[in-house]
Design brief:
By secondary structure, the chain is mainly α. It is 85% helix and 0% strand. It is a multi-pass membrane protein.
């Protein structure tokens, strides 16, 4: 949630933000997407915990695959793709070259 606020406030205050480097925007997008996926997983795990050991979610295995394994796999893929396109080391070099 803080990443959404950060991206919105920086883009609103400083339109130059998007033109510095597209990699910063891509890194923020990577964090936001993976955070959403992990939040979905966490909410389902919370509901599973509240239902107890004889609940509907824990007694049906496909919920574990769909809402536990798939979001974590997608979060890992998002980070792999994000680190490829939004390499933090080249982003730091680009931003340091903009200093007066």
């Amino acid at each position: 949630m803080n990443e959404f606020r950060f991206s919105y406030s920086v883009a609103r205050v400083c339109p130059f933000y998007r033109h510095i480097s597209k990699k910063w925007w891509f890194l923020n997008l990577t964090l936001m997407l993976s955070s959403i996926l992990i939040m979905v997983r966490s909410i389902v795990r919370l509901v599973e915990f509240v239902e107890g050991y004889d609940g509907f979610i824990i007694s049906h295995e496909y919920f574990i695959y769909v809402f536990d394994a798939v979001p974590m796999l997608l979060a890992a893929i998002v980070f792999i793709v994000g680190s490829f396109f939004g390499n933090i080391f080249t982003t730091i070099t680009e931003c340091q070259s903009l200093k007066p």
